[in-house]
């Protein structure tokens, strides 16, 4: 049972990663002037949509948790509505947290909100798919001994790595690498040697932290997320390989890794 | 014995840090000091200056009286006006204008110097965009117009500014608007070749001296390394290019001769110019000289081409510029040995902090002999080193001596530690992984100029992450929401845990909000179009609108009121406000008085110009007197606090074991309620009567109630912080008081959150310790507050106006008092947070008391619990119960805090020494290091004061107990 779960989990993650990679390349065939860095807003929308759809479809297909006994149509619709509301609330919450973290309140509101949306698709949506709109279950999963199945484990790892990735994404913001995805408004240094005007580039000119473009954060978040996803699937795949010959120590190892 | 050791030990560790910083500084800042020495040789009276070499010429001076001290007796006639008061815009300028035109008309001078100061002072006082500035500039324009009209044909008018100003009107840094100033030359005769006005040539200021000297027919001053401005030597105008070129060449040649002489003399005196560079320059000069001689010979025969002269000029120019570059490069040099020594000393002291903080918890650790041995060794090392230095003929340098003694005592301590317990020498890492990551990020960020500049954003970022992590970890461990999963809400502990969750979340959100709001007071390191400082940092006096001004003033008043009320409220809540002790009386009456004084001072200071002339003297007197009065009040309050720090109210026989239990809130409403309460009151009275009767006859143990004993330490620290905060508030501009309010609120929320997260050490008598996480968060908050009170670690951003609070007329010659005032302004957050550091240890104990009172309340109002007797919370008396652990915990707290700060200083030191050839070293890394080092010194002093205060209170509590027991026995 567990081995089959691991296999399914692996395919789900492979699909997710492939979809993220495809969203960076496919739209350039349909849209003109599409690039991840220049038209980041479009890309953010497309990416979050794709990931959301793939997540929902895959989890519905795989159905890790068999649905509850009462499966009337009314119950299903109410669950769906509830899920949508929860998703929206989580977007708003993420938005608030990002603003509390120093993002401008009024400027770049759309960027901030899209960033919150994409963060929600990576954290809240899997929770919704796996656990349903049940806050108590979510809170239970994110405790030390809360994970009961391999799906819960994967949920923990993906959510945390997404949040950590987004957090890491803030680090390149102050750097002055003169990249367009940084802030674009930085001036170069005026370093004219051989003239009287030998003048150090003034520190104030170089830096503009505000407004923060969240493309940066998102870029990094994506990369780290992928790395974490890859690591995680590798992590989960290894014991699967080991368990093929089914040695007792190997299964013990698998058990320790998974819990 | 033990108690004094905590302080002594901390002081010793602080000394070790100071020695490291001092040694590094003596190797690192050498450059700047020498540079100022060198550049001052351009102004040496009689030797290097234009004025000095102008003896024999008639020099007339009018303006700034600083010149009198610089060039005594150099002027044939002088009109000096007092210039020190920055607030005074008109004395100097009007004085000059009065004397300028009459002197112009006379014919008894060769050089007339008029030093106007009004625009500079106006910039400092009002900034460049104030109506006053427009008036001042108009006045200067008119002066120039009149001057130009009156100018005679044989006179050259030179108008030069010595610096520009930033958007705030200050200067002293090296940003473009500060360094760029105008130079305007005017002569009634057409003298200058046509140059485009759109893109004027940039001329270094040093070039003015040789040009003017040659124009006046004076020798160029000896120490000059400037280059003549060639446009002013244009023969007879554009008509004769050859003559012009010749004149220019001769001017250049004179200049080059002087510079070559200076280089020669300098290389004899100091060996720091690289020989090959010197040789190259000499070759260049000799070849150019010989060419010049050749040219002069050719001139006699009459065949000179202009191109030859131009080639010669360019060669001479090359020499002059090469000489200047060589000089400026050489004057930036370091002493690597000292820098490495200082770094090693700092690093090993950090290590020592780490090891010892781990060892303090073991009960029988022999600190006395270890410390004594280390101190004795240190003294011996210092004496030996002094002897060695004297013998070697090198002068005694305090930084070297300190470093020597610090190193020997450090080695002695570590050696003794190692010989005593070899197993304990393993390197301990400070705390769990997240703290390591945080420390690493924090120190790695100091190596990048971008991150140093962005630290105002990075520190709050890390603080938010830390607090979020704290709550997330709480949830991860399942302590945040226990009641949800178990779903049995009947037992009181579960309901308590349920309350804990939302409480922690609320604290977190409040903390995040505070941190977010504090960014509103951000100041840019430099004023640029891209980065605008918060407009709220400007003093209210510069605001134009009356309505807005009044509103802001109201907000500031509200802040003061809230601060005073908050302190009172907190003390009342802890039960310390009822005590008859003098500090409490001071909190009741003195604090509002201080707030009143502060408010009055702000009102007067922001409206001085609007005061009616009759009241001017009164207002100026009050502006001087009020800050001093507030300072005196604060000093009195601190004195009272030190005199009787025990703020406890004792009542005999007041405590009764069973409380009246009421099932309703507020006054009784129905007959049923009364039926419930009245029998209880009756029983209570009966008991009281019986007690009285019994006391008359036999002997019963006396019940004593001491209100506020559980928070006696923290009450003293909070009072001290409030008393410190008011003078510091006064040194800042009015609206920063809001930032101070946020500061207090934020640290309160942080303490509460940490106490919730750490959990109360209920029941454990054992070693108390403050987790690394709490201390890192505290240090981060201190850094964040430094920025959020409108400071930046660069020199132009220092609030110089703080030196004039209470001293509007200036300070005379002594630099100590203004330095103290400006220092207190700049390092206010370091001071407050380090004095408040013991609160980290005390707060969980205080919160324990609150938790239990709350529990009691819920019990009383909700369910009836019969028979189960609640234990009274011991709170801070837990610490007193085990004095050894208390001292050890204080020492450990201090060492941990010093470690965190020390690691920051170490990172700054490493960054400054590794990147000393970096483009930004004088702009970013060196100022950051200086600010961090001074901040460390202030913090460690504050820490010592805070720990000393807690120990002083502890001693007082001890004697208070003794007295109490004595009086009870009698």
TrEMBL record, chain A:
This is Phosphatidylinositol glycan anchor biosynthesis class F. It comes from the Eukaryota. Coiled coil: none annotated. GO terms for biological process: GPI anchor biosynthetic process. Keywords: Endoplasmic reticulum, GPI-anchor biosynthesis, Membrane, Transmembrane, Transmembrane helix. It comes from Monodelphis domestica. Pathway: Glycolipid biosynthesis; glycosylphosphatidylinositol-anchor biosynthesis. It holds the Pfam family PIG-F. GO terms for cellular component: endoplasmic reticulum membrane. It is a multi-pass membrane protein. It is found in: Endoplasmic reticulum membrane. The chain crosses the membrane at residues 9-29, 41-62, 83-106, 112-131.
């Amino acid at each position: 049972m567990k081995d089959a779960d691991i296999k399914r989990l692996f395919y789900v993650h492979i699909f997710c990663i492939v979809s993220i990679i495809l969203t960076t390349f496919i739209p350039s065939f349909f849209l003109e002037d599409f690039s991840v860095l220049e038209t980041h807003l479009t890309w953010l929308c497309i990416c979050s949509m794709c990931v959301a759809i793939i997540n929902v479809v895959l989890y519905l297909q795989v159905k890790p948790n068999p649905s509850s006994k009462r499966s009337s149509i009314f119950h299903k619709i109410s669950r769906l509505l509830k899920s949508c509301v929860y998703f929206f609330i989580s977007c708003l919450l993420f938005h608030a947290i990002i603003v509390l973290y120093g993002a401008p309140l009024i400027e770049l509101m759309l960027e901030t909100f899209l960033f919150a949306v994409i963060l929600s698709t990576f954290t809240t949506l899997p929770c919704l798919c796996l656990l349903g709109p049940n806050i108590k279950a979510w809170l239970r999963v994110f405790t030390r001994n809360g994970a009961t199945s391999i799906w819960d484990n994967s949920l923990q790892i993906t959510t945390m790595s997404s949040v950590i990735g987004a957090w890491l994404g803030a680090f390149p913001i102050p750097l002055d690498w003169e990249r367009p995805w940084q802030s674009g408004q930085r001036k170069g240094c005026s370093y004219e040697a051989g003239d009287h005007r030998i003048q150090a580039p003034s520190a104030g000119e170089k830096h503009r932290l505000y407004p923060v473009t969240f493309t940066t954060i998102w870029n990094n978040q994506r990369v780290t997320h992928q790395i974490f996803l890859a690591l995680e699937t590798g992590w989960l795949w290894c014991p699967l390989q080991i368990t093929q010959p089914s040695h007792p120590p190997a299964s013990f190892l698998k058990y320790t890794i998974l819990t | 014995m033990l108690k004094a050791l905590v302080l002594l030990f901390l002081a010793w560790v602080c000394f070790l840090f100071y020695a490291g910083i001092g040694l590094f500084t003596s190797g690192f800042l050498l450059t700047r000091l020498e540079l100022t020495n060198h550049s001052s040789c351009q102004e040496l009276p009689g030797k290097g200056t234009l004025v000095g070499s102008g003896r024999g010429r008639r020099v007339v001076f009018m303006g700034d009286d600083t010149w009198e001290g610089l060039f005594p007796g150099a002027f044939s006639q002088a009109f000096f006006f007092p210039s020190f008061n920055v607030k005074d815009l008109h004395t100097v300028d009007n004085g000059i204008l009065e004397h300028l035109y009459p002197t112009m008309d006379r014919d008894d001078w060769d050089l007339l110097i008029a030093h106007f100061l009004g625009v500079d002072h106006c910039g400092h006082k009002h900034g460049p965009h104030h109506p006053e500035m427009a008036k001042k500039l108009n006045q200067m324009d008119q002066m120039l117009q009149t001057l130009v009209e009156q100018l005679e044909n044989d006179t050259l008018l030179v108008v030069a500014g010595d610096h520009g100003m930033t958007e705030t009107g200050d200067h002293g840094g090296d940003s473009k608007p500060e360094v760029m100033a105008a130079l305007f030359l005017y002569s009634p005769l057409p003298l200058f070749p046509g140059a485009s006005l759109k893109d004027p040539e940039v001329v270094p200021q040093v070039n003015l001296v040789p040009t003017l000297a040659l124009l006046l027919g004076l020798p160029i001053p000896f120490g000059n390394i400037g280059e003549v401005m060639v446009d002013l030597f244009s023969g007879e105008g554009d008509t004769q290019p050859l003559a012009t070129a010749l004149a220019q060449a001769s001017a250049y040649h004179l200049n080059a001769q002087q510079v070559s002489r200076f280089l020669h003399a300098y290389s004899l005196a100091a060996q720091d110019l690289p020989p090959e560079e010197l040789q190259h320059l000499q070759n260049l000069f000799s070849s150019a000289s010989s060419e010049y001689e050749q040219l002069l010979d050719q001139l006699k025969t009459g065949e000179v081409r202009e191109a030859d002269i131009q080639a010669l000029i360019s060669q001479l120019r090359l020499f002059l510029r090469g000489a200047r570059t060589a000089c400026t490069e050489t004057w930036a040099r370091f002493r690597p040995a000292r820098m490495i020594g200082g770094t090693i000393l700092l690093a090993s002291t950090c290590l020592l902090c780490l090891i010892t903080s781990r060892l303090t918890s073991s009960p029988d650790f022999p600190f006395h002999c270890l410390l004594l041995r280390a101190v004795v060794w240190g003294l011996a090392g210092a004496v030996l080193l002094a002897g060695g230095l004297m013998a070697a003929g090198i002068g005694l340098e305090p930084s070297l001596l300190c470093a020597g003694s610090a190193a020997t005592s450090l080695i002695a301590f570590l050696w003794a530690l190692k010989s005593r317990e070899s197993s304990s020498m393993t390197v301990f890492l400070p705390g769990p992984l997240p703290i390591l990551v945080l420390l690493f990020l924090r120190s790695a960020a100091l190596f990048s100029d971008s991150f140093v500049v962005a630290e105002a954003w990075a520190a709050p970022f890390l603080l938010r992450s830390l607090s979020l992590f704290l709550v997330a970890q709480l949830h991860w461990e399942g302590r945040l929401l226990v009641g949800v999963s178990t779903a049995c809400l009947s037992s009181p502990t579960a309901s308590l845990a349920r309350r804990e969750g939302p409480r922690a979340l609320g604290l977190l959100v409040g903390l995040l909000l505070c941190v977010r709001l504090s960014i509103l007071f951000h100041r840019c390191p430099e004023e640029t179009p891209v980065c605008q400082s918060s407009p709220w940092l400007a003093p209210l006096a510069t605001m134009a609108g009356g309505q807005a001004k009044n509103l802001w003033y109201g907000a500031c008043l509200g802040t003061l009121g809230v601060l005073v009320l908050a302190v009172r409220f907190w003390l009342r809540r802890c039960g310390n406000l009822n005590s008859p002790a003098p500090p409490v009386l001071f909190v009741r009456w003195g604090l509002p008085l201080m707030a009143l004084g502060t408010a009055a001072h702000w009102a007067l200071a922001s409206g001085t110009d609007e005061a009616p002339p009759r009241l001017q003297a009164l207002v100026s007197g009050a502006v001087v007197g009020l800050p001093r009065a507030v300072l005196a009040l604060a000093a009195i309050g601190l004195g009272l606090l030190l005199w009787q720090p025990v703020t406890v109210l004792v009542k005999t026989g007041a405590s009764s074991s069973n409380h009246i239990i009421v099932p309703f809130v507020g006054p009784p409403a129905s007959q049923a309620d009364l039926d419930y309460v009245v029998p209880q009151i009756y029983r209570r009275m009966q008991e009281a009567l019986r007690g009285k009767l019994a006391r008359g006859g036999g002997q019963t143990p006396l019940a004593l109630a001491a209100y506020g004993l559980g928070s006696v330490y923290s009450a003293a620290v909070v009072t001290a912080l409030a008393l410190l905060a008011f003078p510091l508030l006064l040194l800042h501009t009015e609206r920063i008081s809001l930032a101070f309010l946020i500061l207090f609120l934020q640290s309160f929320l942080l303490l509460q959150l940490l106490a919730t997260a750490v959990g109360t050490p209920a029941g454990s008598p054992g070693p108390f310790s403050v987790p690394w996480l709490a201390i890192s968060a505290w240090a981060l908050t201190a850094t964040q507050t430094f920025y959020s009170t409108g400071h930046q670690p660069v020199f132009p951003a220092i609030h110089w106006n703080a030196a004039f609070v209470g001293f509007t007329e200036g300070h005379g010659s002594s630099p100590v008092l203004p330095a103290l005032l400006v220092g207190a302004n700049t390092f206010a957050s370091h001071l407050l947070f380090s004095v408040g550091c013991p609160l980290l240890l005390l707060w969980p104990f205080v919160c324990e008391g609150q938790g239990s009172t709350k529990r009691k309340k819920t019990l009383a109002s909700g369910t009836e619990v019969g028979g189960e007797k609640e234990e009274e919370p011991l709170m801070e008396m837990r610490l007193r119960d085990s004095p050894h652990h208390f001292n050890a915990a204080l020492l450990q707290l201090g060492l941990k805090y010093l470690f965190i700060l020390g690691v920051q200083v170490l990172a700054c030191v490493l960054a400054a020494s590794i990147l000393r050839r970096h483009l930004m070293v004088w702009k970013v890394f060196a100022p950051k290091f200086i600010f961090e080092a001074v901040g460390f010194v202030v913090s460690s002093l504050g820490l010592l004061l805070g720990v000393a205060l807690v120990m002083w209170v502890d001693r007082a509590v001890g004697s208070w107990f003794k007295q109490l027991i004595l009086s009870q026995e009698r």
